[in-house]
Amino acid sequence: MEHHELFQKIIECIDAGTSFALVQVLKTDGSTPLKIGARALVDSTGHIEDTIGGGAVEAQAQQQTVMACAEGKARVFDFELHGTSRQDSNPTCGGAMRVLIDPTIARARPVFTQIVTAIHDRQPGILETRVTRGNDTEVTYQWQPLGDHQDTPEFITRKDQDVLRNPILPLPHLIIAGAGHVGQALAVQAVLIGFAVTVLDDRPAFCTRARFPVPVALLCQDMPGALSQCRLGPDTYIVILTRSHQFDAAVLEACIQESIAYIGMIGSRRKIEVMRRDFVTAGLATAAQFERVCAPIGLDIGSVTAAEIATSITAQLIAVRRRGAQA
Fold first, then answer.
1. Which of 25, 26, 203, 306 lies at a CB distance of 3.0 to 4.6 Å from 181, suitable for a disulfide?
2. Do 104 and 150 share a domain, yes or no?
3. pTM exceeding the 0.85 threshold for the entire prediction
């Protein structure tokens, strides 16, 4: 479950009167299944949506949530993964996790409404969770604009308070130029790995909901013109898969000057070299700008079918998203 779905689910559960808790990993040390900021929803029966790492720590979180919901009080528990053998029931990862369980989250509905609105508007921000320790554990939440380009969670501990500052960023935006078989398969895979997807094509027969039943935006018009309607930024990824090298070139010309996360284009090495020469000679791009284009697109995994080619592109998108330029 992506964060936009989880926060919408929080509001739905509150409005439905469901007894549940938001479970968050406040702090980790050493090797752990998931890191600081991981979150899940657990209801009063122990049913969980999303994950904080699975296995024993998640099982304990589910058990603790059942008790916390019955009490109506938040609680924090520490879990050590210091098992010494495969027979040991304790995980052997070697790390430790501090987990917050908050069944009082309904009081913070206005904050989570702010978050859902911000995600819809593609506005990044920080969800600050403050945990005050005492006879009872008190939890408060605050939504703040993103400052100083913080993009990783931060844990701060004070005398009687733990603070988790967790960035909530818009889903990265993937624009697929070309609604053919590869584009169709790629759209499905990209949605699954957490991209907001827009598909461009000028052919009404290809740009249809029947071919794209997943939640993607469809723009059926001239592709460079459609691209100009999209907001491009550092979280934008563009994949060029049109039906001809002329259309590929037109779309590439429309985006190669933009400061975006990724541009990838399908085609043979010869096609790419010809296009590189033409772009540089015509002054449409510098050699350095063309070097940013991942072409031929995708990781070399021996792909043959449309689905396999889409998978190789998906893997490359993941690498760029998680590793940045070094991918």
1. 306
2. yes
3. no
* End-of-domain residue from the set 120, 138, 168: 168
Examine the domain organization and report whether 143 and 236 are in the same domain: no
Q: Please name the residues in contact with 72: beta carbons below 8 A apart, sequence gap of 6 or more.
A: 103, 104
H, E, C per residue of 91-114: CCCCCEEEEEEECCHHHHHHHHHH
**Shared domain check, 159 and 179:** no
- Residuewise pLDDT in 10s, the chain (327 residues): 567 789 999 999 999 999 999 999 999 998 888 889 999 999 999 999 999 888 888 999 999 999 999 999 999 998 987 655 555 555 556 688 999 999 999 999 999 999 999 988 888 999 999 999 888 999 999 999 886 556 789 999 988 899 999 999 889 999 999 999 999 999 999 999 999 999 999 999 999 999 999 999 999 999 999 999 999 999 999 999 999 999 999 999 999 999 999 999 999 999 999 999 999 999 999 999 999 999 999 999 999 999 999 999 999 999 999 887 555
Residues 179 and 301 in one domain: yes
Residues of the domain holding 267: 173-326
CATH at 244: 3.40.50.720
- CA distances to 81, 145, 283, 287 from 280, rounded to whole Å, are 55, 40, 5, 6
